[in-house]
Structures are given as structure tokens and as C-alpha cells.
Amino acid sequence: MAWAEVVTAFRQCMPQTTNMHLTSVRPFDTIATGFILAQLSLADEKLRPKNLLVFANTAPRKDNLKARQNNEGEGLLFLTLKNGVQAVVVNSGFSLAFVKDQIQELWSCNCEDAGSQFRSRDFFPPVCGKVVVADYSFINHKLDPQETIPDPPESVVGYIDSFGNMKTTIRQLNPKIADLRPGDRVKVRIGSYIRTATVATGSFNIMEGDLAFSPGSSGQDNRFWEIFQRGGSAAAEFGNPSTGSSIHIQTI
Question: What is the CATH number of the domain that holds 94?
Fold first, then answer.
């Protein structure tokens, strides 16, 4: 019902020619939100539509742990990336961390943040509707991304897809493991689970059932390493960890 109400509200505020694509993360998961936002908004120009606007709303409302008055929550931000993509994002956790260094301009918004427990339906659609028609009357104060947004978490689980493949926040060019070559063996520890994986270049470079550690399909020019199991679920092998779980890689 929540999805239907949000989509209906957005349709009301958007031109009828606007195409919408929806995706979701686990409740309050700002790491996965930031990972997806970066993957979509920083995609190669040939792989994303022109005039792309990304809206992201993951709001655990942990910016203030005290009791909240009138359902107020994290503020709404508007940004333009260096590649021209625009985004409207709730300023929560790591939602903007993975695009931090690619932000051209960052603004706070004149948008209600109190009075409803369903802000994504009641308050946010009109802001996105204005962006689509190039009406920026809602912007408020210009912000410094370096002061406003945290750095992305290092060496953690960043996103788990529907196959149980775990996309990490370890970059391909990370100097600690940049010398790994296909066929090398590594010991992977996540929480109390320790498994051995083979460094691979793709899902068919390992035997059925084996774990692989490989540069994945996310991260553009400096891809993120990924842990996957051919014919199975890598996440299940590690006890289905949550995003943000620390990953320790040791060469064998």
C-alpha cells in the first residue's frame, strides 16, 4: 500500500511523459541506498537516460535520537553531480556517501520535514515535480558536501542482490589487495564466519559451489570487489550478514 500511495503521489506531481523506475532496500539501510544511488547516477552516459533524476528516501530518523516532535525527520537535499545528473535525497546516514566526491552543487530544500509520518507521500513528490520542469524555487542554502556528507564506509558489505551475491565497498584498486591475480586464494572473514574464496574474473571461472572474490559489475571505472558463490548464495554462506558488516581479506 505504501508503494502504491507514493507512486500515485509522484504521478500527480510529474508530467505524464515522465518514466519512473522503482527499487527498494531493507528498512533503514542507508548503505545500500547510497550504493544504489551511486550505481545509477554515475553510470556511463550510454547506460542511463538523459535528464535522469534520482529520488532516494531512506530515513531512519537517527540524526536526533531524542523523542521527535510532530514526526520531524532528516532534511531533504537537492544536488547536481558533475555529470549533470540531479538527485533529491533525504540526508540520512550514508545515502549520499558514495557520490560525495562527484557532487557539483548541494542545496538544502524548503520542504516540510514535520507534520506527517509519511513524508515521501505528503511532502517530497512536489519537490521532485519542480525539478523535472526546471523550477528550482524550493532550494534554500548552498552546502559544502565535504562538511555535510560522511565518507563511504570502507571494507564492508555494501549491497546484497537477489542471488545472494555480496557487493563490497572494497575498490578494485585498493592497494592492500591490488596485486591479487585470478586463481589466488584468499581467506574471507565476516563476523564469526570464515570462508576460503578463489580470486576470479567472472562467475564461470570457478567450480560449481565454490566461493569467488572478484571485481564485480558495480563501481564504474574503479569497480567494487564482490563475493559470490557459483550456483549458490554467498550471503547464506556467511550467515546472511547485514550491509555495513566488516569484511576482512587475507591472502593465503
Answer: 3.40.50.10790
